Amino acid sequence: MKIATAAYPLSWVETWADYEAKITRWVVDAASQGADLLVFPEYGAMELAALSGADAAGSVQGSITAVGDWLEQGNALFSSLSSAHSVHILSPSAPVRDGDMTVNRAGLFAPSGAVGWQDKQIMTRFERDDWKISGGGPLRVFETALGRIGVLICYDCEFPLLAKALVDAGAEVILVPSCTEALEGYWRVRIGAMARALELQCVTAMSSLIGTEPRLFAVEENTGTGGVFGPPDKGFPPTGVIACGTLDAPGWTIAEVDLGAIRTVRADGHVLNLAHWEEQHPRVTQVEYSRLT
Questions:
Q1: Domains: count for the chain
Q2: Which CATH number fits the domain that encloses residue 90?
Q3: The domain containing residue 73 runs over which residues?
Q4: Is the pTM of this model over 0.85?
């Protein structure tokens, strides 16, 4: 498959027609380059808050409520574009009311019209304290025409056991939509994505929200780029970097991913991290304390 990962710049959109035109341009651009799977970033849907006006977009809770008002229309747009251009799309994630909780949710849209949802599992400090967003669930592996795909939203990819659960359930590709304000945040997520590709012998595809828009209070400043990573082993680049965009430059980073290469490296790589994972368990329960003074 050919994966397109976005460095997606926030915009202040005045009307629904402006938003629809922007998203359509992005999807058409990726599809015209032969992409099969498009990965938009975490909290990219926050620009929908602009459609409800400056007062709504000027506060966290106002933004969350405003985005919710437009989300059904947004999901219909992504579903329509997925079908029209025969591409799978991971939509920009959004805060979604779920019962008495608010969760961070992304949708995976298939050309058939099918759609699946993945909630972020573990919240960062600002999500817990400022946004009052809770971890959702459960983790899901999506069986698609392209292969078995998992999603770890931003901070989630920094937790190895979440990725291991997806791989144990059959995932070969893990999508990592991210929203990071500062450069160190981008590198935390990127290092996590690369580490998961190494230890689980899979491909990870990271997208980023970028740009500055002070009127969108909840996500006013962002940095990052798109990237596709694999295990640094045979069949993959020695750096593990299959493709990487330019920091903070808007656009798609596109890479060809061969699922056969994933299966080959898992079966006969120079190292067999995934196969040897279980050898950790008896050893981590046998740690001895030694005093050297």
A1: 1
A2: 3.60.110.10
A3: 2-284
A4: yes
